[in-house]
């Protein structure tokens, strides 16, 4: 087997660059009408028949032969045993990763997730109270591959936020993975079920006899899961709709080329639709990265996926300057953004849209994926233009606090009444006026 | 015309209370298949034909005869003239309200919307950078009624967040309302168009020749707007899907009954589906509120809407205690929650789910609606279980920052590699291992 990985070569000085880049970036998040119909039917069925429907779909799609949903519940003892049975190195790595992820999210809660209030001059109290969501559902993919690290990344911020009940769902065969069960135990999943797909999302959103109804569903999944999350949004909260994973590397040519090539691989190995892009002003360095790709590809166990992903969706782009590279990066709004530069803090302020920014040669994306601390659930497909990494804030909500004093009501009442009459809402105006002294 | 407003009387001590409450709360947010189809077609049409499609739908649905989309753009001069032409009292009220709303949202940004970072023991930098969304679209309803205050509540947090371009859309005839145009000028709308419905949402989400593509769409609208927002979610960010407005009043019997009755009216006058609920342990006080309702109803210009809303969806509920009233309030998770009590700070800590909490007899909801400072765009239909008032945070997004030192890479690389091999992602492991010293 001779594989080759040939990312598209582009240069910003060529005519037609913008169109060529747009074509390479294009990934349609459009929903498929067939999938939409199937998902709508599954959700309606789970709403009306509960456990029985979830059981039927699970047996059919995951090829199981369970006789009740209770059989599909994973017990705490089972998760704990999985944790205790891990080889020591794996258990320590998992504990270290969990500790770092927890510590980062505790800092995040402190920085932006605490209640606050103040009193203004007339004694009016204004503020915002921050409270955890009561019960959340965490969707963990488990069909094609098992991602224990995703269990940590979903459950730990929920736990740090103070969520009382964390319900995990993971389809067969992911639920057989010891590292995944160990992660669930370590991260504090309250209950766990071996169910997946739209039927699992519906069970969480509406509740069944066995699966408790949650207030929010987070975590990535396939097209059925994405469609189901979109459909139950409003009934419950959701985090985001995930697309294929992406990396964009800004390189000034000072990072070893094989490090950068391996970082592109680490994105590409996820799946054929994953996207890896290199932006660099130095053509010779780009050639060097391509040679490193050629040299290292045959050694990679997932070489086939990497080759397809890089060739069909990858790009090595020569820019006029690092400044121009930063501009293009803002247009791409990548999920993962590496600044492979000797002077990363020079470029970071120019970068407006990205899920996570990895500064300097030593910060490989994979360190962030597993254990640096920040979350690895990140906005994809340019949605970093308007959305954020999964965080403690996703498991909290805010309530405004207002306490108007008698004195304050005299001032505010006049303003409110004037505007309420202007909108034709007389009861609003009268409610304010009743509080005025006569 | 003899109208009567008879909210449902319930008591928590009666059998069947839970079911009766659930039935009264029931409001289906389910999407209508007919509306969904129409909206899907409109969006597809706007994507493919741009301006021409938006123009056609606008002329048809809003009964206009515009010949180009440029005709439907409202200029800055027009908005400024509207502001300057307001009666002095109205202009001052608007300015005062805007000033207070701005000041609150500035405090909000300071409390939870600033970038942060720290270095851990091995020199690794971890943090989060907070940046504004580049361009947002604000949907302002204008079909049945015009709400200038909603313009302030959407545009000011965007401005405080640092959003560079704020594009307002408001259907005819709302665009004729001087107070609304004045509010748009005061709150810093960059551009404004007289368009509405699904066609306006599609124009903002995908862009047309005339309407710029935005990154996020906020603001309430009718069922078509809600369906369109749900459908474009992912292509752009959205705030929330709004249902009918609600108030829940917790009363210990110390607030004048006519104040409470008028507060229930001020919710009910919005529309027939609005919901007003009173929870109180004192039966005599509940009777007093009903008498105040009977006495004041005939004076209200919107008496018909109020009577329908209170009779069909309102409830006066006698509870065993204030503690029980707080528990029920958490089940309702109301948009607006008034604590009409002499000791509101005793009850506030018991209240977990609410859009905004109004403490004490003087804090009528209408003060919060117009000018106290906090946002009046709030989660409805129990979504306060998982979502928050519109805020500065809705117009910002976060990027994780990670900078691992050479020393840090030696520690993190070992952990990441162990977990990556465990997940079968060898390129992830190799990328970490390449950074290890040999």
UniProtKB/TrEMBL annotation, chains A, B:
The organism of origin for this protein: Ramlibacter pallidus
PROSITE patterns cross-referenced by the UniProt entry: HISOL_DEHYDROGENASE
Keywords (A to Z) from UniProt: Amino-acid biosynthesis, Histidine biosynthesis, Metal-binding, NAD, Oxidoreductase, Zinc
Catalytic activity: L-histidinol + 2 NAD(+) + H2O = L-histidine + 2 NADH + 3 H(+)
Bound cofactor: record note: Binds 1 zinc ion per subunit.
Gene Ontology molecular function: any one: histidinol dehydrogenase activity
Matching InterPro entries: Ald_DH/histidinol_DH, Histidinol_DH_CS, Histidinol_DH_monofunct, Hstdl_DH
Positions with a binding annotation for Zn(2+): 267, 270, 369, 428
Residues annotated as binding substrate: 245, 267, 270, 336, 369, 423, 428
Family: Belongs to the histidinol dehydrogenase family.
Listed name of the protein: Histidinol dehydrogenase
Residue ranges that the Swiss-Prot or TrEMBL entry lists as coiled coil: none
Gene behind this protein: hisD
